[in-house]
Amino acid sequence: MEIAFVCLGAIGLLLLVAVVFGIGIYNRLVTLRNRVDNAWSQIDVQLRRRYDLIPNLVETVKGYAAHEKETLEKVVKARQMAIDASSVKEQSDAENMLTSTLRSLFAVAEAYPDLKANQNFLMLQEELSGTESKIAYARQFYNDSVMTYNTTTQAFPSNIIAGMFGFVQRDYFEIETEAREPVQVQF
């Protein structure tokens, strides 16, 4: 009788430890998932700022380079694609396209000395450059958060809790090799 009582107590204690351990893992997964969501929100803030700057930049360039209509239309189209993106993968692809078209826009600006000297253009270009740096930092923080989250969802024994409660892996926010360079602002 005494041995049965001790065995039941030991089993109960082990179950209690397992439940507390499981709760700890679950709470860590929730924390990491929320950190990833917050990191994505920070990227979104900087991308929205970038999207808000682009129409002003396009309008400024239009005044000097009206016959560069195709380049300006590509920038506007790429901006809209980026705004409409609904997943991390779509956002990555759209941002790569937008960065490429912005490079084309700045290349066009090189051909117009009056535009390069325009204070409004220079200010917009400076703001865009600063925003690009903030995006790069936010992207790094997001990807670091995703790595920690994904590692935790894959590692034993947290992968069991992750699978039971629907914690799925997240995508990295990847930029193509040629788009990794910051937008050039040298004149």
Strand content: under 5%
- SSE string, helices as H and strands as E: HHHHHH
The CATH fourth-level homologous superfamily = LemA-like domain
> How many separate structural domains?
1
Overall 3D shape = rod-shaped
Q: What integer is the average pLDDT? A: 88
* Helix-strand makeup class: mainly alpha
Distance between the termini: 89 Å
* Number of distinct helices: 6
Give the CATH topology.
de novo design (two linked rop proteins)
What is the β-strand count?
Answer: 0
> What is the top-level CATH class?
Mainly Alpha
Describe the 3D structure.
The protein has one domain (36-179): de novo design (two linked rop proteins), CATH 1.20.1440. The model is unreliable at 182-187 (pLDDT under 50). The protein has helices spanning 2-64, 69-84, 88-110, 113-117, 119-154, 158-164. The longest helix has 63 residues, at 2-64. 22% of the residues are buried. With 187 residues, the chain is an all-alpha fold. It contains 6 helices and no strands.
How do you describe this structure in short?
With 187 residues, this protein is mostly helical.
Task: Give a quick set of tags describing it.
mainly alpha, de novo design (two linked rop proteins), disordered C terminus
